[in-house]
Design brief:
Blueprint: E1 8-12, H1 17-28, E2 32-37, E3 48-51, H2 57-71, E4 76-79, H3 94-119, E5 125-130, H4 134-137, H5 143-163, E6 168-175, E7 178-179, H6 181-188, H7 193-202, E8 210-211, H8 212-223, E9 234-237
Parallel strand pairs: 1-2, 1-4, 2-3, 4-5, 5-6, 6-9, 7-8
Helix pairs in contact: 1-8, 2-3, 3-5
The chain binds nicotinamide-adenine-dinucleotide (NAD).
Nicotinamide-adenine-dinucleotide (NAD) is lined by residues 12-13, 15-19, 37-39, 52-55, 80-83, 103, 107, 130, 132, 175, 177-178, 180-183.
GO molecular function: oxidoreductase activity
Keywords: Oxidoreductase
Organism: Streptomyces azureus
Length: 249
């Protein structure tokens, strides 16, 4: 891993889980890192924190402008904020579809739109989108969530094509089941959270959940000049779930 000295990065959803681990890893490696989150109250120095809702274009533009002014420019955008949804197409209403799509897909578009003018000025610009194995795995009970992540995957490829000649690389990571507060909340909702966790771990090829820091490592690689010839790709961080053709749920 090269160091990130002199690199200025913005991480959405950076107050928790994968985003938090990524922001901390990039900062440990020398980057100046701004976190954009609905609730950045837990974010400490050296991370810079900005409150914004990725479903609100004005709040995204204001937070990005403030972050870029404080960082003195921008080299890396980690488009990570996202929310979950469970159920089949019969379980989710139109409102559910609009709400989740607005966060998971349009939220990434809004943030990218606000960041692109600044990334163009960077000599090593990279965007990393947090996608999911749900984009391509055909998971049961995840119709809406999977469709949003399928859109994130397509968006990654299209943006990579649009911006390759501007020197802006665009890639995504496809995590499997990651041990974050989000998954913790899902497990806590089960009648027996400990048994549910054990069953979930047993279904992983590795026998354990993916660590948030392991996804952060993949994001950092795709954000770094070490992956300078890589654009328009996805990197699975799923403990072998997809490559070994095993069912995650
Ligand atoms: P998390 O809930 O721990 O963290 C998500 C963060 O995003 C929170 O800090 C939250 O405040 C922020 N956020 C949510 N909505 C927002 C909005 N409208 N505007 C700004 N910030 C907002 O979740 P996580 O598990 O770290 O997930 C992060 C990303 O990883 C998501 O895109 C998710 O789809 C993806 N992912 C997670 C897993 C997993 O198993 N945890 C697997 C695959 C992909």
């Amino acid at each position: 891993m090269s160091d990130f000295e002199g690199i200025r990065a913005l991480v959405t959803g950076g107050a928790s889980g994968i985003g938090r681990a990524t922001a901390e890893l990039l900062a440990e490696r020398g980057a100046q890192v701004a976190v954009l989150d609905l609730d950045p109250s837990s974010v400490d120095k050296p991370l810079l924190a900005y409150r914004a809702d990725v479903t609100d274009d004005a709040s995204v533009r204001e937070a990005v402008a403030a972050a870029v002014a404080d960082l003195g420019g921008l080299d890396v955008l980690v488009n990570n904020a996202g929310i979950g949804a469970q159920g089949t197409v019969e379980d989710n209403s139109d409102d559910d579809w609009h709400r989740v799509y607005d966060v998971n897909v349009v939220g990434m578009v809004r943030t990218a739109r606000a960041c692109l003018p600044h990334l163009r000025a960077s000599s090593h610009a990279a965007i990393v989108n947090t996608c999911s194995i749900a984009a391509t795995a055909g998971l049961p009970q995840r119709a809406l969530y999977s469709a949003t992540k399928g859109a994130v995957y397509s968006l990654t490829l299209a943006m990579a094509a649009d911006h390759v000649r501007e020197g802006i690389r665009v890639n995504c990571v496809n995590p499997g089941t990651v041990d974050t507060p989000w998954v913790g909340r899902l497990l806590d909702a089960a009648p027996d959270p400990a048994a549910e966790r054990a069953a979930l771990e047993a279904r992983q090829p590795t026998g354990r959940l993916v660590g948030a820091g392991e996804v952060a490592g993949a994001i950092a690689y795709l954000a770094s000049p070490l992956s300078g010839a890589t654009t328009g790709t996805s990197l699975a961080v799923d403990g072998g779930m997809q490559g070994l053709r095993l069912r995650p749920v």
